[in-house]
Structures are given as structure tokens and as C-alpha cells.
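quick one before i forget lol
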Amino acid sequence: MPDIGVLYIVSTPIGNLEDITLRALRILKDSSLIAAEDTRQTKKLLNHYKIPTPQMSYFEHNRFKRIPQIINHLNSGKDIAVVTDAGTPGISDPAYKLIRAVIKAGCRVEAIPGASASITALSASGLPSDRFIFEGFLPSKKGRKAKLERLSTIEATIIFFESPKRINKTLNDILEYFGDRPAVIARELTKIHEEMIRGKVSDLLTYFTERTPRGEFVIMIGKDDPNVFF
């Protein structure tokens, strides 16, 4: 009976293709298969580094079909790398469901660390980083108010992801429930149009009211501390 394969959780760049580790490149080359959230997006990375490893798609809507297939590959002794579109798999994407199923099946899981948009943004924000909470995307409707009310009482830097279509609504809601706290928005991290906007929540709302929001956003809200304002 062959040894059981390893599921490698491989972090990939969040924008700049140079932001990948040598170990990650080796694992992507040596794995028998890459399970990718979007094979078209991952193909750009593989082509850039001349990595010929075949891909299969793995995302939220095909996971019931793919998870048994991936476990069968692992049980036959083949290593598989799982990647998301950008950053660390399992963070605000369905890779954690695959990871949980693989662990339950008795296979080994190994993380290959690398880029993460939330940590990249926080490290350059200037906001307190001794305690922080990552919340991902806020609910669009159901549960949104309750979550904002709960988070507003926490003494830590709060990190959200947001889309350009909802950035102004989310800033309005944060202003209503959190008050006019120190805040930072990171936009298009590691890309050519990277931008860090710092100020009070009201300043950021004004900024994006006057400009058309573009790109991918990380919103960071600091503690209610007058000494933190930029």
C-alpha cells in the first residue's frame, strides 16, 4: 500500500508575483496536482514560473464532488497543493472545508506560509497590532447590525474585507456603530496602484465619496483612542 499523500496549503501572491517563497514554488512543482479556486487565475502564476503541474478546480459550488476526489488522490500516495486566487487558502474562502475533510480522513495537512492581505495591511497601517480581529466580509443584510454592534465593544483593531461596490455603505455603517475612530484602508496591496489611506472613519468616507472606488479593500478600524489619530 503506498504512503498517504500530503495536502499542502500553499500561500500565493496577493498581487505582485514576486511575493512567493522558494518553498512554495518547489511544492507547486513537485505536487501531482494543484487544486485551485480559479484555474485561470492560478495559470498566470504557473506560467510565470514555468510550472507544468496540472490543475483541478476546487471552489464552494463543486466541493461535494471534489473533496472525495482529492482524498482518493491522497490515499493513493499523491501529494496535492491547494491554492486560492490570492493569499493564504482557508482565509475567507472554502479551502477550510477541504482541509477539515482531509484531516477527518486521516491524511496529513501541511501549511506553506506566505502572503496574506489582512496581515500585510495591518503591518503597514500604523494601528495597534498587539491585538486584532479579522472579520472578513460583513454580512450584506441578515446579521449585519448585530455583528457591528458586537464588534464595536471590542478593544482591538478590527479588520474587514470589502468590495468597491459596498465600501461607502460599510464605512457609513462603521461610522454609525463604531463612531469616528482612527481607521486605515489598504487598496490594491502589492500592485502598481497600491494605496494606504489613513484618518478618521469620516475622512475615509469623504475620500471615497469624492472618488470612484476601485480594487480590493482591507478596512482596519482602530480602538476608540484619541492618541491614535494620524
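fyi The chain has two domains: 6-112, 117-228.
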